Amino acid sequence: MALTHRLATEDDLPALNALMTRAIEHLQQGFLSPDQVRASHKVMGLDTQLVKDRTYFLVEADGVLAGCGGWSYRATLYGGDDSVVAREPARLDPATDAAKVRAMYTDPAFIRRGIGKRVLELCEGAARDAGFSRVELMGTLAGVPLYSASGYLPVEDVLSAPIDGVQVPLLRMEKRL
Q1: Domains defined along the chain, listed by start
Q2: Residues in a beta bridge with 100
Q3: Predicted TM-score (pTM) of this structure
Q4: % of the chain at pLDDT higher than 90
């Protein structure tokens, strides 16, 4: 399987959103209740600011979209365009702040093939090149094993704001670059 990567463009948005929907629906099973999976669609998703900032990668396997994820020099830690999460577009200071790893998704047809690890490496490398010495992310329970294996340490257990009375458990994690 030949993996390639590139920065996402606005033309990729429909395919990225479809991949994210599949990932949330399938990969959160076993980690979240069915109600929490449904609520996850209002917690997770693509922040198109990442695409506009040219900090959002996609990985293709033999030309097929297999995964995606990005990093940000803005203060928003997680949440997509349609989520209930508050957005904070303020720019971070690489000397004092951690860059944010954001919106990591692997297509269910491509799990356990190194896609997530590849995306993390791309994000960390780009953040390092931009002068950041730390990164942080808000991990889903399904993503925590990958992040832990990649050197991320737990910082704080978080529950999302209630969505139709349901909260989604998350874990804020951090890594030194």
Answers
A1: 3-176 (3.40.630.30)
A2: 72, 136
A3: 0.95
A4: 93
